[in-house]
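Bit of a strange request maybe. I'm writing a small parser for structure token strings and I need a real example to test against, not something I typed by hand. Could someone generate the tokens for this chain?
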Amino acid sequence: MISRRHVLAAAATLPLVRILSAPAWAATDPVFSTNGIAIHGYDPVAYFTEGKPVEGSPEFISDWQGAELRFASADNKATFDSDPDAFAPKYGGYCAYAVSKGATATTDPFAWSIHENRLYLNFSTGVRDIWRQDIPGNIAAADANWPGVLNA
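Reply from user aminoacidic:
Good idea to test on real output. This should exercise your parser:
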């Protein structure tokens, strides 16, 4: 029996299915950014310290692999700068689920999860729900594809 939940989950994935079935494009940039700003301007440290997306400020910025990261406070910037690998989103901030499928996709800062002290971003909250069904398996697949998907 197909439930309403199954129909909604399928509908939520349609945009990602279109992206993944479209002709491959090389992402080349190691970090997903919009106008040079990673995570759409949200503070990566806040996901860990506040448990939610928090907008960063242009007053507190760091360069992360050629993209600008913004932070909500000088303390968060200092925390990131002291250990970028601990706080930066995996897979350059590209959709972790898309990377697990051998592609890249944009992300929504509200579609996030932390697993084993690592930040993962997804295309949408619907895709995040699919990602969460098998996080360890998806991470294994994404790790195998990263960073090769940047040159696919």
